[in-house]
Write a structure and sequence with these properties.
The protein has 67 residues and is an all-alpha fold. Helix content is 85%, strand content 0%. It has one domain. The model has no long low-confidence stretch (mean pLDDT 94).
Length: 67
């Protein structure tokens, strides 16, 4: 399961990098740039969620070992 979360985090990082290249910094809130910003933010949220999930699973394993 840990490998899956790392793999999906790398995929989300790739999505962020791809969408960062699509942003027109002269007009960031127009058409394609706006979509790229939203998608990059969604990728960042995905990375954050996977990181939280890994921490929760690590805590869960620690608690189960102690009991």
């Amino acid at each position: 399961m840990r490998l899956l979360t790392y793999l999906l985090s790398v995929l989300a990082l790739g999505i962020i990098a791809f969408n960062f290249t699509k942003i027109n910094f002269d007009a960031p809130f127009e058409k394609e740039s706006y979509t790229a910003i939203i998608t990059a933010l969604a990728g960042g949220c995905a990375i954050l969620l996977f990181t939280i999930w890994r921490v929760v699973k690590k805590i869960d394993r620690t608690v189960k070992e102690k009991s």
